[in-house]
Design a protein that fits this description.
two-stranded parallel ribbon; 38% helix; alpha/beta; globular; 12 strands; 2 domains
């Protein structure tokens, strides 16, 4: 197994200032709160996201800011916070889906983002979780957007399909990431395993640096377009994405229901042509142990017009996050707070609510 631990400090350096900002915002909230009210009213809510070069982290940062309601902040109708009163949400970087699910299970975070396949396996105790058993307390808040499977190669690479990765230096995603799980499924579909490659287990930022240096032939990442690391790499060298347009890809979609066919948009990355690829849903999940009122408030804040505007203006994938898609592909129970909100706005009927 190949690794390059020397690259990890880059992500850590990127993360440090963001954690400092979160602490500063919390301190500011305390300072602005009315005397005697801060300690009593202020609550923290941790959202597990992903690597700082992926899509989960920036989306999480936008949502954390939007759903927060610091004590003493101006009211929503006066241009202030439209979040949950007294709540400070913090976007916490992680390796992604699998780590977020583990941290929700262990209670070290309150909620997190995860791919729909990982969520379904975790709740049902199948797939990746067949040995450890189901995480019965896992609950859904919402489907957010579709994530695309990126197989990134230099523009002049001889790799045309996943099968051509045999014997090559390929980054398959960080340990603990949903990317790594999906990469293994895709490799298997094309008759490959990690033993057939020179595998690296890297987040997208160090993987893109390695490709620029010529020490990596391809890297895989699952995320919403544009991924910062892929966008930056496209500006520094000619790249392309491997297309999923063959019978193997079609059979994979037919066999695994959480995979769907999608297309990289023409404006996805600078000078990168659109290609057919695979997609999987990104979900916001939590634990049944989080109280109903908190999740009801978060769900209402998520779909508030102010939050929707912040998402649309803050990230290209934010334009896909809409209440009309909130329950798309949700195959685990909704949290009671989220269920109550969707019932209140008519998205879930009373009859449907009984089976959620």
């Amino acid at each position: 197994m190949s690794t390059r631990p020397g690259w990890r400090p880059m992500a850590e350096r990127m993360l440090g200032p963001r954690l400092a900002v979160s602490v500063l915002l919390a301190a500011l909230a305390l300072a602005l709160a009315p005397a005697g009210a801060a300690a009593q009213d202020l609550r923290f809510f941790r959202i597990g996201t992903g690597t700082t070069a992926g899509t989960y982290f920036p989306i999480g940062a936008i949502l954390a800011n939007a759903v927060s309601g610091p004590p003493g902040a101006p009211p929503c109708e006066l241009g202030g916070s439209c979040g949950v009163p007294g709540l400070i949400a913090v976007a916490q970087a992680s390796s992604g889906s699998v780590e977020n699910i583990a941290n929700i299970r262990d209670g070290t975070i309150d909620s997190g983002f995860s791919q729909a396949d990982i969520v379904t396996w975790a709740y049902t105790g199948t797939g990746l979780y067949a040995e450890d058993g189901p995480i019965a307390d896992l609950r859904a808040i919402a489907h957010l957007y579709n994530e695309l499977i990126h197989v990134v190669v230099p523009a002049d690479s001889p790799v045309e399909t996943v099968a051509d990765l045999r014997g090559r230096r390929v980054a398959l995603g960080d340990e603990g990431s949903g990317t790594l799980i999906d990469a293994r499924l895709v490799l298997e579909a094309y008759g490959l395993s990690e033993a057939d490659l020179d595998p690296f287990y890297l987040a997208p930022a160090p993987a893109s640096d390695a490709m620029l240096e010529g020490t990596l032939d391809a890297f895989v990442f699952v995320g919403g377009v544009p991924l910062v690391a892929v966008e930056d790499l496209a500006r520094r060298m000619p790249i392309r994405l491997v297309a999923f347009d063959d019978p193997v890809a079609e059979a994979l979609v037919a066999r695994i229901p959480f995979f769907t066919m999608a297309t990289l948009p023409a404006d996805g990355y600078p000078d990168v042509d659109p290609v057919p690829t695979l997609a999987v849903g990104a979900m916001w999940v939590t634990s049944a142990n989080v109280d109903e009122e908190t999740i009801y408030g978060l769900t209402a804040a998520l779909w508030h017009p102010a939050t929707q505007a912040a998402l649309r203006n803050g990230h290209p994938r934010g334009r896909e996050i809409g209440i009309e898609n909130a329950l798309r592909g949700v195959a685990i129970p909704l949290h009671p707070g989220a269920l109550r909100y969707y019932r209140d706005v008519g998205l879930v009927s009373a009859a449907d609510a009984e089976i959620k």
